[in-house]
Amino acid sequence: MEVAGSTLPNRYIRLKANMTTFSEAEDKSLMEAKKEVEAIFEKEKWAMIAEAMHAKGGEKHPVRDRNASEFCALF
Questions:
Q1: Is residue 13 included in any domain, yes or no?
Q2: Which of 11, 17, 27, 55 could join 22 in a cystine, given CB atoms 3.0 to 4.6 angstroms apart?
Q3: Is 45 inside a domain boundary?
């Protein structure tokens, strides 16, 4: 039986991640940091998409600040 080359390293990473524990303070900090990073990424993501579209020959469009519910309502 042949096992894929990445099976063991992937398993080790999952096991190591499952053994990591955070204190309540660290958990709160993690959630706050995650929220901050995701907000920054969400804003920058659309600017990067607009720039990529422009690079592919599309028109240059301004990026407006929208929340996800406004964006989803467009579709």
A1: no
A2: 27
A3: yes
Domain that includes residue 62, residue range = 24-73
Give a yes or no: residue 19 inside a domain.
no
Select from 54, 35, 34, 57 the least CA-distant residue to 46. Answer: 54
Eight-state DSSP code of residue 74: T
Q: Is residue 33 one of the residues assigned to a domain?
A: yes
Number of domains in the chain: 1
CB 40 within 8 A of CB 62: no
Predicted confidence band at 15 (pLDDT cuts at 50, 70, 90)?
confident
**Amino acid, res. 36:** E
Cα→Cα distances 73→52, 67, 68, 70, Å: 23, 10, 9, 5
Residue type, 71: F
Give per-residue pLDDT as tens, 27-73.
Answer: 899 899 999 999 999 888 888 988 999 999 998 878 776 655 555 55
Token look-up 């907000």 returns: 39
